[in-house]
Amino acid sequence: MTMQIFVSFKSIKSKVIDLADHTTCADAIPLIVQEINPLLGAHPIPAHADVFLTNAKGKVASETLLPNESSYTLLVSLPFVPVLDPEVMLLLSIRLRQQINSPKPGHLVFISTGSHINGDKGAPEASNQQCPADLVKHCHADGLPLSIILIDAGFQNDTGGGQIYDHDPNWKLSIELLNGRVRHFEHALTGFKLSTYQTHLENWGDNATHLSDIDLTVLGARLNGVDGQLLVRMFNGDITYNSRPEIRLGTR
After folding, report:
1. Would the pLDDT of 42 be above 60?
2. pLDDT in tens, 122-164
3. 93-102 LR contacts (CB < 8 Å, sep 24+)
4. How far apart are CA 26 and CA 225, in angstroms?
5. How far does CA 40 lie from the centroid of its chain?
6. Which domains does the chain have, with CATH numbers?
7. What gap in Å lies between CA 47 and CA 190, rounded to an integer?
């Protein structure tokens, strides 16, 4: 025995899908994708995509038996796949290894991953995300040098401004490498340093103890040994590593 369901996806309205009776949602989805992909031309549903069926009640559970002549919308979610730039990662690794081998006294290093402002949200948001006020205040009070390392794949895009150096003209570009995929800035008034590394990370979103091939705990210990500090913060504002947890900085 067979039955039919009706599936919509993008411009495809009520595509008729023939299924065997008592087909579950999980079993139906590969058959639906197989039927719909030829209609999508040069942009079929990727094999690695997460695909669901939804109806008026929401997402349909995998084990649900699909009734005859029921209607659904196909929902496709593409998982985030980090794209690493090996040339950028090499320069980042060299930079961090230099800081391990020759740490600067009293040096505060702030690494922020996923720190690109998507679009122009204004100077306060850019500062909060890329050069937090408590870091600036702490470094000013104790006369500490500050180095900011921002890692993200989207520093150069079509959305225009949004980075802190777009809003504060005192951030002066000093060095540009790999056609701008690595850039170094220096603040004209404070002498603070800021670098952008245009790449994703393999452990994007994780509370990892390594960055490229660098053990952050080793770097943190080396900075602590010369009265410095290492802070690592994810794009969501969570501090994932603080070499001196008794000094709380970088929180939003």
Report:
1. yes
2. 777 777 778 888 888 999 888 899 999 999 887 765 555 678 8
3. 93/212, 93/213, 93/214, 95/149, 95/195, 96/211, 96/212, 96/214, 96/219, 97/214, 99/219, 99/222, 99/223, 100/214, 100/218, 100/219, 100/222
4. 56
5. 29
6. 2-77 (3.10.20.90), 86-242 (no CATH)
7. 50
Helices (H) and strands (E) in the chain, counts: 6, 14
- What's this model's pTM, rounded to 2 decimal places? 0.73
Question: Is it the case that residue 17 has pLDDT exceeding 90?
Answer: yes
Closest listed residue to residue 138, CA positions, set 247, 245, 232, 252? 247
* Dist. CA 58–CA 108, nearest whole Å: 49
d(CA 242, CA 220): 8
24: DSSP letter = B
Cα separation, 192 vs 186, in Å, equals: 6
Distances (CA, A) of 156 to 75, 152, 163, 199, 246: 30, 10, 10, 11, 36
- Residue scoring higher pLDDT (208 or 46): 46
* 205-234 pLDDT per residue, tens: 556 688 888 999 999 999 999 999 999 987
Which residue, 32, 25, 17, is CA-closest to 64? 25
CA distances from 158 to 123, 142, 183, 246 (A): 18, 39, 18, 41
Residue in the structure block whose two tokens are 């870091």: 135
Ramachandran category for residue 210: left, alpha or beta (phi over 0 → left; psi -120 to 50 → alpha):
beta
Q: What is the CA radius of gyration of the chain?
A: 25
d(CA 111, CA 203): 14
Residue 167, token pair as written in the block: 């809003």
